[in-house]
Design brief:
By secondary structure, this protein is α/β, with parallel strands linked by helices. Among the domains are: about 40 residues, no CATH class; about 210 residues, 3-Layer(aba) Sandwich (Rossmann fold); about 90 residues, Periplasmic binding protein-like II (D-Maltodextrin-Binding Protein, domain 2), CATH 3.40.190.10. It is about 45% helix and about 15% strand. The chain is built from 22 helices and 20 strands. Strands 4-3-5-6-7-8-9-10 form an 8-stranded mixed sheet, with helices on both faces. A 5-stranded mixed sheet has the order 12-11-13-20-14, covered by helices on one side. Strand 11, helix 7 and strand 12 form a beta-alpha-beta unit. The chain is rod-shaped. Keywords: Cell membrane, Glycoprotein, Membrane, Receptor, Transmembrane, Transmembrane helix. One of its GO terms (cellular component) is plasma membrane. It is a multi-pass membrane protein.
Amino acid sequence: MRPLRNMKRIEGSAFAITHFLSTWLQCYALMNEHQETANSVIFLRPPAEMGPEPWISGIDCLEAFTKIVFTNRVRLTRSYNMLITNSYNISSPALEIQDGFIKLINEAITQSTERGRRFYQLRTVFDNEPYVKQKLGDSAVIFTDYYVIILDSVELLRVLMRDFISRMVSWNPGARFLLLYNNPLRRDSEHEIAMELFTLLQKQYYVHQIGLLYSTGRVDYSFLVMDYYNNANCRTIRVSKIGECKNGIPQPTAAEVKRKLRRFERDIEIKNCTFKMCAAVSAPFVERDCRTGLELLIVSFMRSRLNFKIQQTCEEENRGVREENGTWTGLLGKLFDRDCDFVLGGFYPDDEVNENFWASTCYLSDSYTWFIKLADPRPAWIALLHIFKEETWICFIVLLLLTWIFWYFFVNMLPEPKDHKDFSLAGINAMAVSICVTVEERPECFASRIFFLAATFYGMNVVAIYTSKLISVFTDPGYLHQIHDLEEVIAADIAFGGPDENQDWFQNEDDIWIFDKYNDSDLFIPNSENLHAVRHGERVILASRMYVLQDRIADEVFAFPENVFTTPLQIITKAGFPLIPDFNWLIGAMSDHGIFQKLENDFRYNNTYLNRISRMRPDFKESAIVLTTDHLKGSFSILFVGIVGGIILFVCELFYYWILAPRLRRGSKEQKLKETKMKHTKEKRRNKLDHEKKPENKNKKRNLCWPFRKFAGKKTVALKKKKAKRRERLDNKTHEIVLVESLRFTPIKRRHIDLHGFY
């Protein structure tokens, strides 16, 4: 019984305290802040707000104006996303309006069968627990299209936006916001509260489309909108009243309120509005004078069509990246701080940028690649060697050897003249025929003649093809080996790098070695000074092809054939920028009419053909091509090698014939004499033995008959005398040589003629 009595006493005391506070201090809620288990607030309605009429009318008004405000939608291929706040720290009757509208919209979504899909996709955010942001894939992120927020104080909106709504993955500052404010204590502060709410959303979160249902009585609401782009003072916040709502019915009618709202949106003009454009000097998109450039031409066209003003600044600044603390550097830092409305300068928004900023539709594209020093010009005498590839020269040498061997084979197997059958002579003749030089030893057999003709036609074709390239090689000898990939750059120990925002391209498993050695200092920022360093071979820079193409030294640096990355060019804006839909519409129209293609074609034509022609114009007077010793270095080299080789062989032959050969002959003569002496010695011994065995009185003459034995010795003596007289006559007389038809002379080979054969 005692606990029951204590409970009744506590209830009585609480009632007395709340009645006193509600009477004198106009307090309508109690909360035990020190009790950890307490997760709700007890609100007490004022007597004037008792009954269901205040919150029922609030639900009806909110439903009616939802249909009015959210009807002007862009047609999408998906259901529209609506987010409703479900706050625990809210007073009555806003609490009942919140719960009732959530129930109503759920029933409407469940029962909707418009074209076989749901009318809305509903999302709800609660403020009873801290919001934890989770990283989702790009395909899972669907931005919110409409926001419905029910409030009873400005502080509640500030907490909801700061801790919950703006931290959501689906946060969209460009969506339409419909606020309902109902606080019985602030019925007469319509303009003041509206200004605070609009200023909070626009200045801190860059929201531009805001509608407010402000409770001015138990069942009365005023519908207010933020007039930010007004004619008098553009980009200043003003409050405009469009209509009213009483007992859940728009006044004067729903159609009239809708008509007024559409007229208000249609009459918005930005001709007096000035937007801040920050551009990075990046030719050809933005030139240094901040007046010309491809992107400036596009922005100028959109400015003239949309009729707004631009305050533009151009500076040598990079795009910027996000730091670890969440701040941004470069132009994106200025855009994040709202010092600029949009930025451009050959930029593209990557995934990191898309999380915090908006971007227009792509209007141009550019490719990035590595730029390195152009290889040195190839000397003309080396260019003569490179008319044919190395494999072709090897084939020529192999064919020369085969021709040599077959020539030697034919002349030795066929009855050709004996002077044709020398091995070295066959090689000289084969080489001479291969380069179309006449030879003296022409074949006499049909088989060797056919082979000779085939070798002759082969040499004529080779020489004709080779000489046809001489003029082009002399005028444009080409370049030495050109480095064309990063492996060769690393092997040559050349530093490479580029802008810091491009380093993320290589943060993957295949290119991590590039990421580790990538330099992002100021020495690797694409500009004229650094490109001159590239021309001298000091570094390798990752740069835009279009940027380098418009530079004067575009023909003096080499671009890798393969692109590292191809990027779309887009205008980057603050999230929620109101002109993005208009920008995208104009970009689409310009693309359909071929304006962007015309700009790109004109740029490439002007910076390739016309500029190169203008650079070549002073050289038009020099029409004659003068050959110098540089073109003949190859010929001089061949002659020098031949002379040196001949001298070396000459010395070797002198050494052989004057020193080594006589010694070899002397040694061979002595050996022969020894062998002859030994042979004579052996013969003497043999004759001596034979003489001892035979009788001394035997003689060959004894075997002859007597008449022959008498004249045998006399005949031998007569023959010897006759030959001696003939030799004497030959030695003392000058003889005239009569050429025989079968005897031929040639300057290549010496002939030894035995004159005794003619006598």
